[in-house]
Amino acid sequence: ENSEPNWDMKIKSLWFTPLEGEKLKAGRAVLGGVAWNDGRARIDAVEVSNDGGRRWQRAELDRPAGRYAWHSFQIETTLEPGKQTWLCRAVDTLGRTQPLDGSIGWNPAGYGWNGVHAVSIVVE
User: Fold this and answer.
1) 115 closest CA partner among 80, 90, 79
2) What pLDDT digit, counting tens, does each position of 66-109 carry?
3) What pLDDT, on the 0 to 100 scale, is given for residue 101?
């Protein structure tokens, strides 16, 4: 057996827009997604990077009423032409975050995975 029970959801964030491989127009754009965790601590921030994780900036974060709910995030940015990879990671008030190495915590069904989410896009 190569899995174990998963009672506590690890902290995660995912891009909803843009999607992997999407082609976008250069100029102003709003990028966003959702973050969540096991509900034991408040999601404090979602950080995004487009330089491989060397620098991170905070996205705007919505605060839902329920502690188990998805936390929507978005960032308004100016997209320059070319290929880009955008990363996102959530951070909670216990200091938990997503590892940059996405192979950490991988499991067959994916429930234990919580690596930094990356989407590669083409800006025209």
Assistant:
1) 90
2) 888 999 999 999 999 999 999 999 999 999 999 998 777 666 66
3) 83
With beta carbons less than 8 A apart as the criterion, state whether 83 and 50 touch.
Answer: no
CA distance 13 to 46: 8
Average pLDDT of span 10-20: 95
How far are the Cα atoms of 4, 41, 57, 92, 124 from residue 45, in angstroms, in the given order? 29, 12, 10, 7, 30
Contact 12, 111 (CB under 8 A): no
- One DSSP character per residue, the chain reads -------SPPPEEEEEESPTT-EE-SEEEEEEEEEE--SSS-EEEEEEESSTTSS-EEPEE---SSTTS-EEEEEEEEEPSEEEEEEEEEEETT--B--SSTTTT--TTSTT--PPEEEEEEE-
pLDDT at 20 over 80: yes
Distance CA 118, CA 107 (A): 18
Strands 117-123 and 23-24: parallel
